[in-house]
Amino acid sequence: MSQKAKIAVVGSINMDLVATVTRSPVPGETISGQHFAMISGGKGANQAVAAARLGAEVTMIGCVGDDLFGVQLTAQLRQEGIDTQYIRTAAGQSTGVALIQVQQEGGNSIVVVAGANGEVTPEQVEEAEAAIRSADVLLLQLEIPLPAVQKAAEIARRHGVRTILNPAPAVPLPEELLQSVDLLTPNETEAAILTTGEARFDGGITDLIGALKRMAGGTDVLITHGELGAFYQIGDTAGHQPAYNVKAVDTTAAGDCFNAGIAVRWGEGAELPQAFQFASKAAALAVTRFGAQTSLPVRTEVERFTGE
Asked: In whole angstroms, what separates CA 116 from the centre of its chain?
């Protein structure tokens, strides 16, 4: 392993309430589930834990509620070796929760209630400027208010810190934000929403990358496309990172693991195509396991993984 990467994550912290089902119910229908679990989650926290397990020094910036979930989730992040000094407790707010149904074939459907995640402010992010300034890579997502995301990107740009924006859940974003980060990592649906405002795009993946690149200016773009892998354009160079063929058990947090893998290897000094390959291995391992943070692999597992 190269130098240890320093990663700052600004994002959400949730408790995932997960039920496994043979299929999702239709409106008005009640069905029986097979299994229930409470698992630590939230896109921000997932990326922070994934990065820590992959060998990085990680600082988490976010909000929890003044409830039992908030205490529990913060303690668990500390147990992963993550710096939690910039996690604020929002008085009178519940901690964010995600209600997740995992279908038999491994797909999932998710309802997120933001709770305290909606209390992350630009002012709170400014208080964490030292952590962002000292990072090799900043990781951002969209489960907290957009002004806080924009402030984090602004601070990173000011200090020359590379920033990855995983624009999920997708909403149309100002071009100023898209152009202020270094790498955009949507899936194909999120990329379509960014470029057209709708979850569809009339054209192939190359056209979609081109449209997003035009909006984002000099920002590099990678679009994940499920079993087809990831398609990217770094500067003027296009490429493809194939997905590894594994049996999916639960895809929850696979994208978060993928983004963390990129951040860790990039922060260690690897070129982006190398980082994409490492991240693809990490995400492949994650989908073979149940849950969000419970599925995230450690560094030695990824290094041993051959995809066979």
From this structure: 18
- Quickly tell me which residue has 């979609």 as its tokens: 208
Of the ranges 48-57, 225-234, 288-297, the best mean pLDDT one: 48-57
Closest CA to 138 of 157, 119, 114: 157
- The answer on pLDDT for 2 being more than 60 is no
How many other CB atoms are found less than 10 A from the CB of residue 212?
24
Q: Is residue 174 predicted with pLDDT exceeding 80?
A: yes
Contact 158, 132 (CB under 8 A): no
The token pair at 88 is 């604020």
Tell whether pTM > 0.70. Answer: yes
Q: Which residues contact 32 (CB under 8 A, 6 or more apart)?
A: none
Of 218, 195, 219, 217, nearest to 207 by C-alpha is 195
Q: Catalogue all structural domains in the chain, each as residue range(s) with its CATH number.
A: 10-23+33-297 (3.40.1190.20)
Q: Which residue has the tokens 């909000």?
A: 63
**Rounded-to-integer distance, Cα 94 and Cα 305, Å:** 39
Q: Of all residues in the chain, what percent carry a pLDDT higher than 90?
A: 83
Write out pLDDT tens, residues 88-119.
999 999 999 989 888 877 777 888 899 999 99
| Active site (catalytic) residues | 256
Q: How far apart are CA 158 and CA 105, in angstroms?
A: 45
Instruction: Report which DSSP code applies to 5.
Output: P
Task: Enumerate the H helices of 183-290 as residue ranges.
Answer: 188-196, 205-216, 254-267, 272-286
| Distance (Å, whole) CA 302 – CA 283 | 9
Cβ atoms 51, 7 nearer than 8 A: yes
| pLDDT tens sequence across 119-156 | 999 999 999 999 999 999 999 999 999 999 999 999 99
Select from 279, 267, 271 the least CA-distant residue to 135. Answer: 267
